[in-house]
Amino acid sequence: MFISLYMDTGEESMLKKAILCVDDEKIILQSLKAQIKKYFGDRFVYEFAESGSEAWEVIEELQNDGIEILLIVSDWLMPNMKGDELLIQVHKKYPHIVKVMLTGQADHDAIERTRQQANLHRCLYKPWEEQELIDTLVSGLNV
């Protein structure tokens, strides 16, 4: 099951831009949520998925709701579908989405493949520094 975090005022329909984070570890998703929400506040819809297949469910739901995904932060090592596969597939269908890989275990080939085939914006390594995450998101979002 994926976690949804909309604007606290209950006016989720007013938000039309989203950030999606994908990681099979709930503690990582909770950390990402806290750090991203702390910096960006209610400027975006925040979505969280625990696998590549859940990420696709979220992507389809957001598209159906008319909410544009601006950026995806994805772990690399996940069951069933690795992050590079997910980001490459997303790029084929939604090339405008900014892609960031977050990993503690990705090999150089996977990162390079994602750079070349998915226009990878940046790769962050676990454990990441909060400011590095925020700087990466700000540069990817051009805000």
UniProtKB/TrEMBL annotation:
Family annotation (InterPro entries): Bact_response_regulator, CheY-like_superfamily, Sig_transdc_resp-reg_receiver
Gene3D superfamilies hit by this protein: 3.40.50.2300
4-aspartylphosphate modification, residue list: 75
One Pfam family in the UniProt entry: Response_reg
Ranges where the Response regulatory domain occurs: 18-141
Keywords: Phosphoprotein
Domain of life of the source: Bacteria
Extent of the signal sequence: none
GO process annotations (BP): phosphorelay signal transduction system
Name this protein carries in UniProt: Two-component response regulator
Origin species: Vecturithrix granuli
